[in-house]
Amino acid sequence: MGIHYNEKLKKLPPYLFIEIDRKKKEAIERGSDIISLGVGDPDMPTPEHIIKSMQEAVAKPANHQYPFGAGLLSYRKAVADWYKKRFNVDLNPDEVCALIGSKEGIGHIHLGFINPGDVVLIPEPGYPVYNTGTIFTDGVPYFMPLLEKNGFLPDLDVIPKDVVKKAKLIFINYPNNPTAAVAPKEFYIKLIEFAEKNNIIVAADAAYSEIYYDENDKPSSFLEFPGAKEVGVEFHSLSKTYNMTGWRIGWVCGNKDIIAGIAKVKDNYDSGVFQAVQEAAVTALSSSQKCVEDARKIYKERRDALVDGLRKLGWEVSLPKASFYVWAKVPKGYTSSQVISKLLDEAAIVCTPGNGMGKSGDGYVRFALTVGVSRIKEVIGRISKIKW
Ligand SMILES: *Cc1c(COP(=O)(O)O)cnc(C)c1O
Question: How confident is the model at residue 376 (pLDDT cuts 50, 70, 90)?
């Protein structure tokens, strides 16, 4: 019997980071001492107190049954308290829904709001999942280029009127993966006006809000701005903040009716987040945030080592204010793909080609700061030996 995949599955591009991981494993099998700055997955372990909380939670029989619903009230309250403290945003527990990692909600939100032919506005280069959900719902992606001359912000004024008319959902992501850009307040104010006027739901992806480098200039939440809660929601994750990518926990918060739509999709697709994981997440959000401060210090040392090293070699790189990525212009005369091949073949370094995350990313490569300073110095040493 021949197995036939459906047309939507066939339309999906290969998942970029699985491809990168495959290439990396092949090189390791050939005996290379690979240094991977490819996938944005923290190398540091989950902090001890969160693990301990999980160990206790997992022993409780009450946590062994289907979790169902929008998440434990204690989890949704912990999220609300954290938002109040961090962003001075007021949330009720019914304005929060637990997710199996924010990727789950980002990929499923379309099911609640997109009919065939509806347009979804998607930043590019960007996280591939915004488009995946669009393809699965027969939505039509409209890609908004993130260009350096615009501060890597989408230019809402140049989206054609007929596209805007059909648009139902817009994704934004700051601090941004992959460009490491942070959005200024004016952008959010303009975005809310645009969304309100055109009846478009805003889906703000804030996975990197806590990975910042200047205490006095922290990234904003979309929900801080007047009118935000009328038009949208924000996705958040414990993955990057607490080194918990494997645990699969995040949340979406904001507009109550949008949250209800997402929760309804989830009721019919999955049965919620393992309650023991939710209890551990309450511990993460409500205890001392020193572990996050420590992680920021480590990323900062890595960022400085990589940016300084690349600049000394003549690369054009701006110093990121947030996220654990460095978005570097490739040496003149090369494409992103040529550069990542050269880095892999001649220096055993894995990184992400900018164009792999969208065509406006061509001419850049993304380095993830997921190895220690001594390995970053090794990266610089190896790159210095490449003949361009
Ligand atoms: C890592 C990441 C996420 C979230 O990951 P989860 O582990 O599913 O919470 C979301 N958006 C972007 C842009 C990311 O890089």
Answer: very high
Q: Looking at residue 217, what is its pLDDT?
A: 94
Where are the strands (E) in the chain, listed by range?
35-36, 96-99, 119-124, 140-145, 167-173, 201-205, 232-237, 250-254, 316-317, 325-329, 349-350, 352-353, 364-368
pLDDT of 176-202, one tens digit each? 999 999 999 999 999 999 999 999 999
Residue 267 token pair: 């009721």
Q: Summarize pLDDT for 216-253 with one digit per residue, the tens.
A: 999 999 999 999 999 999 999 999 999 999 999 999 99
Distance 324 CA to ligand 1 centre (A): 12
Write the DSSP symbol of residue 360. G
Q: Any idea where the domains of the chain sit in the sequence? A: 7-45+290-384, 48-286
State the distance from the centre of ligand 1 to the C-alpha of 325, rounded, in angstroms: 13
Query: Does the Cβ of 102 fall within 6 Å of ligand 1?
Result: yes
CA 41 to centroid of ligand 1, rounded, Å: 9
The CATH fold of domain 48-286 = Aspartate Aminotransferase; domain 2 (3.40.640)
48-286 shares the fold of 7-45+290-384 = no
Q: What pLDDT, on the 0 to 100 scale, is given for residue 240?
A: 97
Asked if residue 386 lies in contact with residue 341, where contact means CB atoms within 8 angstroms, the answer is: no
102 CA closest ligand 1 atom index: 9
Residue from 97, 240, 247 whose mutation best tests the ligand 1 pocket (most atoms within 8 A of CB):
240
Any ligand 1 atom below 6 A from CB of 209? no
- Measured from the CB, is residue 205 less than 6 Å from ligand 1? yes
Q: What architecture is the 7-45+290-384 domain classified under in CATH?
A: Alpha-Beta Complex (3.90)
Confidence of residue 19 (pLDDT cuts 50, 70, 90): confident
> Which position has the token pair 């949208």?
232
Tell how far the Cα of 272 is from the centroid of ligand 1, in angstroms.
Answer: 18
Within 255-368, strands assigned E span 316-317, 325-329, 349-350, 352-353, 364-368
State if residue 42 touches ligand 1 by the CB under 6 angstroms criterion: no
Beta carbon of 179 within 6 Å of any ligand 1 atom = no
Does residue 288 come out as left (phi exceeding 0), alpha (psi in the -120 to 50 range) or beta?
beta
